Amino acid sequence: MQPGGDSGPDILDRIPVPLYAPEFAANPHSFYAAMREKFGSVVPVELSPGIAATLVIGYRTAVAINNDAERFRADPRVWEQDIPADCPILPMLQYRPNALRSAGAEHARYRKASVDSIDGINLYEVDRVIEEIVVGQVNTFCGDGEADLISQYAFPVTFAYLNTMVGCPADIGQQVARGMAMMFEGNSAEEGNALFVAALGDLVNLKRQEPGADVTTRLLEHSVELTDEELVHQLVTIYGAGIEPLTNLIANTLLLMLTDERYSGVAALTTRDALSELLFTDPPLANFSITYPPQPVMVDSMWLPANQPVVTSLAACNNDPEIVGPYTGNSAHLGWGTGPHACPAQDVAYLVAQTAIDQLFDRLPELRLACPADQLHWRPGPFHRSLASLPVVFPPVRTRF
Questions:
Q1: DSSP letter string over 210-263?
Q2: pTM recorded for the entire structure
Q3: Looking at residue 217, which CATH number applies to its domain?
Q4: Which terminus of the chain has fewer CB atoms gathered within 10 Å of its CB, N or C?
Q5: How many domains does the chain have?
Q6: Is 5 helix (H, G, I), strand (E, B) or coil?
Q7: In this structure, what are the phi and psi dihedrals at residue 143, rounded to the nearest 5 degrees?
Q8: What is the pLDDT of residues 205-229, one digit of tens each?
Q9: What is the pLDDT of residues 157-194, one digit of tens each?
Q10: Using alpha carbons only, how large is the chain's radius of gyration in Å?
């Protein structure tokens, strides 16, 4: 019998599903369907070899968990005490003094600083900034007649905008990019984390000497008086939650629009329709919103252990047959998360993605995939829904924009 006197199965007794496997990355929705059939709304998984977690795939269950900050806290410090330092996903999950990995009054303080600093972004300026970035980026490949829209477009456009948003110069930005790549790929993740944090420390020092109209300066000047370490880790959240998900949002929406006839022709659906559909049916950050219950807790007749990650599958929950049939165009999805840890920059991210996609099609309207869609490869990983590449072809454009 489990704590509290209620009997029920223990999720630790079930064989876990490996979310890091290439087979999962290739076709996650078939895995979600099989999970639902076998386990119900909560599923034993491994995020990395030997790293156990619970994956929540029921929509209503996920909303309840993500809005219950007392029983499901975002602070991982007890959990990570037993995790090897070289664990490839540790930099993604470990405690940091920021809003994403904290709870209670600590979380409220960090959240206020982050939200206020992001709210200071002038949304009317985003179109202009993105257009300038897009012109420079498209000019690097428009004469070639072919491109990889991830490495040559979605990633560099996203990264350039985030650098502008936080006031990061190119030299520091290059170090940030290197560290981020090492962390997300799981290769030398510990070294990548150290490089990432050191580069952001350089950025904080720079903005202290040369303040500007940017998020970093607003964080520095905020009334909650963040320490230098806290400032660095607010920026960790901005880059970590911005680069990979926003790159994937742009790239995966481009894939949808290039392969679905509803997005071509005179009466075509819009880019905004495509973004909303993708966030609902196949969100770019597929499994995240991680919490660590401090006590054993029963969820949908299943006991979950204390201090083990509980991961929300945004993708599986959005496609829960109990709440949704085919995509209907509404925005009741969990693509941005839900509850006190929901993405505070979703308006900015949405606008950046929409503008980047529209600007690309304006300049290269005859884009088409360079290979059949079923030959594209998806990067393995427990959290993202990310193509390895998105090759396209188009009539070369010799005139620079």
A1: S--SSHHHHHHT-TT---HHHHHHHHHHHHHHHHHHHHHHHHHHHHHHHH-GGG
A2: 0.92
A3: 1.10.630.10
A4: N
A5: 1
A6: coil
A7: -85, -5
A8: 999 999 999 999 999 999 999 999 9
A9: 999 999 999 999 989 998 998 888 777 665 677 888 88
A10: 21
